[in-house]
Structure formats: structure tokens, C-alpha cells
């Protein structure tokens, strides 16, 4: 039984790998490949949000600002100092992470809605700086002419080639988060989320772990921004406005707060839906997009991850009614689904 | 015998209300000390003061000879003081085993780099606390539920899990806030055996409790609070016959008996 399950798992990973590698030749359309690239970049930013909101239970409505800080760091280092992609890759996430700590120290003693408000303010301040500090950030004109990544003879200038680079970054980011989630750090994050006082009295320095979570979240945002800058080769301030921060949160909620796979699926879904609605033209597309988000939130309060979990649980319960966990109380449907999702 | 916890003139005001009023007591290493008193007599407040959740208005608290004032709770934990709560405060989304592993947080050092790259030190540390946590679950009798989500446990077992989480790091002083509350008689007697086992490991226990059978049977000495004041202190037999205590507290019980 175990052997069978193990080989099934390998088969699944193999199939997934083949599909992912073959995707550019399957999709072909440059336009859709570009959308996939964008979905990958958003996924990384949303993964970061998952650490703060999903694991640690804090609301951060400034992820677009950290995304922007990463993008501008890469853009400036590349265009002014000639740093290549690989150098800005090492510089942008720590830079955004440092801003995360900077925001974290004064504000993380706040809780709930007060923290959320403080992050909104931070996002707006960053955006105003990007917009108005013309000599440094190029103001409303932005920064053009950012170089594409180059690795030996390969130049990742097309959407298809950039896809592989982005995918590699996303996989590494997701695996790193999986390790973090299952470590002492991940447990500390979740302990702070579940019960801060009990966490403190178990020996977890809640404030420290909130700051770490913020730093990691913004570093992920910085990585997403760095990739974005080198892909679009141009950055300007309005891209990194608060609407994107809120969209990132929606992506995470629809995917499933706390779930790594959910973050990626949610980000991809909300990147593609507006593209699918393009045919509607004008304001209708955005109105229907908004409605779709509301519907998904109402009918899947725990996101796609929660929905999947409850379906799997139901199937498992039907196949093997006695196989419930030793805890005795079989968790039914929605109650069980709230598991990680809360 | 050495004194592990020394409280001198401890006072806590909440607005115009005095919750703990000039209480002094000292707890010897290795004893089981019970803190009893009618509802609202300040027992939980006193426990919250000792564990650093509240700051006292006046007075001193010395743990192992050092003042605990102005120390964040997680630092007291590192020095060997752990506690449980009146209503179990578990990490409900984590499994039973993970809850206990959080109790060992202070004994692990792995940083971000080591975690992400699975360095040998981090792996070893993780394995070690995994084993310690499993042993602890065995000790309190929850090992069969190790992988169940903590929120699925019945209330009595949640209380036990809280004790396990607090005890796993091997504290010198364990503060228990009404550990038997909500337990049925068989769970309570199981708890009594457990508390004795804990004491035999060398851990000092300071507990607030309403269950008089438990208190009289297992404690070495008892402190009685009434309206925030300490009105009696001594071994169970003495407390049971103390006029003031009977009047303030046990007298009420005698009427029902």
C-alpha cells in the first residue's frame, strides 16, 4: 500500500514536470506565455503574503510596495550601475526585506485593523516617493531600458525563455516556504497566529517572529519585483499601487490562506480571469471580475485549498469510514476545512 | 530546602479594585503548593503576576533569587518557569505533537539559512525535539493522538496537552491554573497521578485549583486567598481545620455537604 502510494506520487511529480517543461511549446501564443510569466511573478509575491497572513495571521496591505521596492532596486542597480540580473537577484529581496523590518519595528506592536491601516499608509508613502522623487526614480516616466537576464549563451528575453527562469524561482521560493512552514520557525509563526499569549508563555518571542514574518514576506515581494523589472524591462510607479496589494490578498484568500499550493493557484487564477474577460471590453470586464471574486469568497470561504481538503476528506470518509483520525470526532465538511485556512 | 519562588508584599490594583493585596509567600523547591480561595479572590491574578502576564502595582517576585519584574514572559520561560491557562490555550491548527514541539522552541536554535537548506544541525535538532515531544506525550498519555489536530481533542485531553506543552522543556517551576476544571472524576484522578509523577521528576508545582479532593490529597502546603489577601498558609490538615478558612471558604462547602 505504502509502496503503491509512493510510486503514484513519483508518477504525479513526473507528469507535472513534463507538463511544466513542455508548457511553452503547448501554449505557443506569446501573449498567453506573457500572462503565465506574470502569474508566476504574482505567485511569488502572494507566497510572501502567505507567510504573514497565512502562517502568522497578520494583515499586510503593502505587498505591492515591497514588490515595487524590489522592482526599483533591480531597475536602478541595472540601469545606473550596470548590475546584471544575477546580481540584482541577490540585492532586491534583502532590500525589500530590510524595508519590511523597517515597517515592522514601529508597527508590529499594533494589532488587527490598526496594523492593516499602518501598512496601507506605508504602501501609499512608498508609492508617493516612487512617483515624486524624479531624479532618483524617474517619476511618472519610470525607468526604461532594464536588461534581460543572461546566462552564458542564453538570453531570457522572450516570454518562453523567461518562463523557465521564473518557474525555477517560483519552485525554489515554494520549496523554501515548505521548509520554513515545517520548521521551528513555521511552528512559531503559527503559534503566534493561534494564540499569542500562549506562544509567549511557551518561549516564543512573538514580536520577533512577527518581524521575521514581515521581513520574509517583503523579501518574497522583492524577488517578485526583481523578476518583474527584468521581464518588462520597464518600471513605473503606478504599477505598484495599493490596488495590487489588495489583489494579492484576494489571490491568497481565493487560493486558500495558509496553503502554499493555494497561493500559487489563486495568483494564477486571478491573473487569468481578467484576460479571459477581455472580450467584454470596457468597464464590464472589471465589474464581472469583481463579482467573480466576491462569489468565490462567499462560496469558498477557505479558498480552493479548503474546498479541495473538504472534498478529499469526504471521499476518504466514504471509502474508509473507520479510517478517521484517532481524535474520535470526524470533522465534517466545512469545520474540517477551516484547518489551516483560518 | 531551597526557595524557588519568593513573593513579597505583592499588590495589584485594577482601577479602584485591589485584586491582590499585600501577599507574601515562598515556595520551596520540589513541593506542590496549592493556591485556593473563593471565586474572585485573586488567585488567577496572582498567577498572571508571577508569570509576567501582568505587572504588579507593588511588591517583589523573585524566581530563583532573581526579580521577574519587567521581564517579558518568553524570557521567564527560558529561565525555567512554565504555565498553563484556566481555559486551555492551545494552538488549535497545529497537531498534538506540534503543540508540544512549540513548547521546546527555546531549546532550538536553527536559523533561516539552516532551515531552508536543511543543514545537518537543524535536522538533528528537529529530530531531537520530535523525540522529546513524543516521550512527553507518552508521559501524559496522549501519544496515540500525536497526529490529531489539537482542536479535535475533548476538553480534558486539551488540558493534559497544555500540561505536556509546558512540561516538555523541563521547567523548574510549573504554574497550573485550575488544571482539573472541566475534567470528569476519572480524568481528575489521572491528573493527580500525573502531578505526582511530575513532582517526582523534581519539578516544583504551584497550582490554583477548585477541586478540594485534589488539593487536599496532593499538595504539600496550601495558601488561601480571600479578597486578595492571604488568610492562611500551611499543610492540608492544618488548613482544613483553620477557623478563618472554614469561615471564608470551606464553611460554604460544609453547608452543601
What does this structure look like?
The complex is a heterodimer of chains A (342) and B (257). Helix content of chain A is 76%, strand content 2%. Chain A is mainly α. In chain A, strands 1-4 form a two-stranded antiparallel ribbon. In chain A, strands 2-3 form a two-stranded antiparallel ribbon. Chain A is globular and about 65 Å long. Chain B is of the alpha/beta class. In chain B, the strands form two sheets. In chain B, strands 6-7-8-3-9-10 form a six-stranded mixed β-sheet, with helices on both faces. Chain B has a four-stranded antiparallel β-sheet with strand order 2-1-4-5, covered by helices on one side. In chain B, α3 (96-102) runs parallel beside α6 (155-167) and α5 (120-140) packs across α6 (155-167). The longest helix of chain B is centred in the middle third of the chain and has 21 residues, at 120-140. At the A-B interface, α7, α8, α9 and α10 of A face α2, α3, α4 and α5 of B.
Task: Kindly report the average pLDDT value of chain B.
Answer: 90
* Strand portion of chain B: 15-25%
Helix content of chain B: 25-40%
Low-pLDDT ranges of chain B? 253-257
Oligomer: heterodimer
In DSSP terms, counting alpha (H) and pi (I) runs of 4 or more, how many helices of chain B?
10
Q: How many helical stretches of chain A?
A: 15
Radius of gyration of chain A: 21 Å
| Biggest sheet character of chain B | 6 strands, mixed
Low-confidence stretches of chain A: 324-342
Distance between the first and last residues' Cα of chain B: 38 Å
Q: What Rg of chain B do the Cα atoms give?
A: 19 Å
Estimate the global geometry of chain A from the Cα principal axes: globular
Task: Please report which band the strand proportion of chain A falls in: under 5%, 5-15%, 15-25%, 25-35%, 35-45% or over 45%.
Answer: under 5%
Largest sheet of chain A: 2 strands, antiparallel
Amino acid at each position: 500500500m505504502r509502496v503503491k502510494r509512493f510510486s503514484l506520487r513519483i508518477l504525479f511529480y513526473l507528469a507535472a514536470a513534463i507538463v511544466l517543461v513542455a508548457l511553452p511549446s503547448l501554449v505557443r501564443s506569446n501573449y498567453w506565455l506573457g500572462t503565465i510569466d506574470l502569474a508566476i511573478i504574482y505567485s511569488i509575491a502572494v507566497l510572501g503574503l502567505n507567510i504573514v497572513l497565512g502562517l502568522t495571521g497578520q494583515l499586510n496591505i503593502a505587498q505591492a510596495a515591497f514588490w515595487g521596492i524590489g522592482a526599483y532596486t533591480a531597475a536602478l542597480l541595472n540601469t545606473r550601475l550596470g548590475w546584471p540580473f544575477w546580481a540584482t537577484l541577490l540585492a532586491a529581496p534583502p532590500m525589500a526585506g530590510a524595508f519590511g523590518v523597517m515597517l515592522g519595528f514601529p508597527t508590529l506592536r499594533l494589532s488587527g485593523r490598526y496594523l492593516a491601516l499602518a501598512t496601507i499608509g506605508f504602501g501609499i508613502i512608498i508609492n508617493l516617493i516612487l512617483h515624486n522623487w524624479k531624479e532618483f526614480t524617474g517619476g511618472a516616466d519610470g525607468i526604461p531600458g532594464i536588461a534581460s537576464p543572461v546566462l552564458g549563451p542564453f538570453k531570457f528575453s522572450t516570454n518562453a525563455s523567461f518562463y523557465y527562469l521564473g518557474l525555477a524561482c517560483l519552485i525554489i521560493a515554494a520549496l523554501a516556504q515548505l521548509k520554513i512552514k515545517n520548521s521551528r520557525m513555521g511552528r512559531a509563526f503559527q503559534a503566534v497566529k493561534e494564540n499569542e499569549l500562549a506562544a509567549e508563555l511557551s518561549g516564543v518571542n512573538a514580536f520577533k517572529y512577527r518581524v521575521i514574518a514581515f521581513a520574509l514576506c517583503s523579501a518574497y515581494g522583492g524577488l517578485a519585483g526583481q523578476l518583474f523589472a527584468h521581464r518588462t524591462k520597464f518600471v513605473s510607479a503606478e504599477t505598484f499601487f495599493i490596488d495590487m496589494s489588495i489583489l494579492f490578498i484576494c489571490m491568497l484568500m481565493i487560493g486558500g490562506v495558509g496553503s502554499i499550493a493555494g497561493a500559487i493557484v489563486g495568483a494564477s487564477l486571478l491573473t487569468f480571469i481578467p484576460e479571459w474577460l477581455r472580450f467584454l471590453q470596457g468597464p464590464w470586464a472589471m465589474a464581472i471580475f469583481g463579482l467573480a471574486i466576491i462569489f468565490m469568497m462567499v462560496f469558498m470561504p477557505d479558498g480552493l485549498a479548503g474546498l479541495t481538503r473538504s472534498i478529499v476528506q469526504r471521499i476518504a470518509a466514504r471509502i474508509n469510514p473507520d479510517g478517521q483520525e484517532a481524535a474520535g470526532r470526524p470533522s465534517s465538511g466545512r469545520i474540517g476545512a477551516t484547518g489551516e485556512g483560518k | 530546602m531551597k526557595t524557588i519562588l519568593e513573593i513579597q508584599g505583592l499588590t495589584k490594583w485594577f482601577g479602584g479594585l485591589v485584586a491582590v493585596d499585600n501577599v507574601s509567600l515562598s515556595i520551596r523547591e520540589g513541593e506542590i503548593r496549592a493556591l485556593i480561595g473563593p471565586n474572585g479572590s485573586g488567585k488567577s491574578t496572582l498567577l498572571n503576576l508571577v508569570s509576567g502576564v501582568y505587572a504588579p502595582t507593588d511588591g517583589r517576585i523573585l524566581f530563583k533569587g532573581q526579580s521577574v519584574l519587567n521581564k517579558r514572559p518568553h524570557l521567564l520561560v527560558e529561565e525555567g518557569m512554565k504555565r498553563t491557562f484556566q481555559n486551555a490555550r492551545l494552538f488549535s491548527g497545529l497537531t498534538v505533537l506540534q503543540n508540544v514541539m512549540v513548547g521546546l522552541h527555546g531549546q532550538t536554535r536553527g536559523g533561516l539559512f539552516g532551515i531552508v537548506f536543511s543543514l545537518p544541525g537543524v535536522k538533528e535538532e528537529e529530530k531531537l525535539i520530535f523525540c522529546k515531544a513524543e516521550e512527553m506525550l507518552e508521559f501524559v498519555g496522549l501519544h496515540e493522538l500525536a497526529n490529531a489536530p489539537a482542536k479535535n481533542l475533548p476538553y480534558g485531553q486539551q488540558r493534559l496537552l497544555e500540561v505536556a506543552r509546558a512540561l516538555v522543556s523541563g521547567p523548574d517551576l510549573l504554574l497550573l491554573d485550575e488544571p482539573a476544571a472541566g475534567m470528569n472524576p476519572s480524568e481528575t484522578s489521572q491528573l493527580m497521578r500525573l502531578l505526582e509523577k511530575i513532582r517526582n521528576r523534581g519539578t516544583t508545582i504551584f497550582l490554583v485549583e477548585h477541586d478540594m479532593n485534589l488539593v487536599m490529597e496532593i499538595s504539600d502546603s496550601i495558601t488561601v486567598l480571600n479578597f486578595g489577601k492571604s488568610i492562611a498558609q500551611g499543610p492540608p490538615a492544618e488548613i482544613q481545620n483553620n477557623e478563618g478558612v472554614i469561615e471564608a471558604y470551606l464553611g460554604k462547602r460544609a453547608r452543601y455537604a
